[in-house]
Amino acid sequence: MIDVVCAVIRDGDGRVLAARRPPGKAQAGRWEFPGGKIEPSESAGDALVREIREELGCTLAVGPALTPVDHPYPGGLIRLRPFLAEIIAGHPVAHEHSEWRWVGPAEAAQLDWAPADLPILAEIWPPVAS
Fold first, then answer.
1. What's the fold here for domain 2-124?
2. How far, CA to CA in Å, does 5 sit from each of 12, 37, 45, 66, 127?
3. Domain residue ranges of the chain, discontinuous segments joined by +
4. DSSP state, 38?
5. Which residue(s) pair with 100 in the sheet?
6. What is the pLDDT of residues 80-118, one digit of tens each?
7. Residue 55 pairs with which residues in a beta bridge?
8. Residues whose CB falls within 8 Å of the CB of residue 70, separated by 6 or more in sequence, listed in order
9. Cα torsion at 41, 44, 48, 50 (round to 10°)?
10. What is the pTM of this model?
11. Which secondary structure element, helix H or strand E, spans residue 107, and what is its range?
């Protein structure tokens, strides 16, 4: 199993940051909560701070954990460990994604999300995934 973290980053209006996977990567074109693999020497929180710095050029304050999601992908089973988070320094820049945007529940429901992220949407906005 591959341990992965992701950040549910909210803005002041309650929207969340959605990031689009770039061409050439698994799940290309699909939307996700940004994050990445936990390295063997890292805690989940440290991995999330590192990944968001690399992917979006921002510094995070990591908040409470949400419910982990186990999902099979062609490359293997992942355990996606989501955390609520807040940007405390910097402004997002899409270094690893083709684009990013702030979305509310209605817009999020219109996006093509990576399958592992759908249970997270259902947890933060139950009507989105119903």
1. Nucleoside Triphosphate Pyrophosphohydrolase (3.90.79)
2. 23, 6, 8, 11, 24
3. 2-124
4. P
5. 19
6. 999 999 999 999 999 999 999 999 999 999 999 999 999
7. none
8. 1, 77, 78, 79, 80
9. -20
10. 0.93
11. helix 105-110
